[in-house]
Amino acid sequence: MLIKLQGCAKNNFILIETQGSLQNPDYTLDWANELHPFHEGFEVFAGKFEDALRQKFPGRI
Predict the structure, then answer these.
(1) pTM for the complete prediction?
(2) How far is residue 57's CA from residue 50's CA, in Å, rounded to a whole number?
(3) Looking at residue 21, what DSSP letter applies?
């Protein structure tokens, strides 16, 4: 459903794929628990959001 929303021109919607972003073979290095990554994991996610914002708003981010 989210992918369909992103493709619709009238929606100002950006889907940022984060699933599978933390692929360290040693699970304990990326995740503090099942829901929250460690600082380095958050940096990976933040980079994905920053890339999407730079693409959407070139020259402003």
Answers:
(1) 0.72
(2) 10
(3) -
